[in-house]
Amino acid sequence: MKSIVILISGRGSNLQALLEARLPCRIAAVISNRADAAGLKIAQQHGIATHIIAHQDYSDRDAFDTALAASIDHYQPDLVVLAGFMRILTAQFVARYRGRLINIHPSLLPAYSGLDTHRRALHDGVKIHGCTVHFVTDDLDHGPIIIQAAVPVLMNDTAATLAARVLHQEHRIYVQAIRWFCNGHLSLSAQGKVLLQRIEQPGCTLIMPGLE
Ligand code: GAR
Question: Is 105 a catalytic residue?
Answer without folding.
Answer: yes
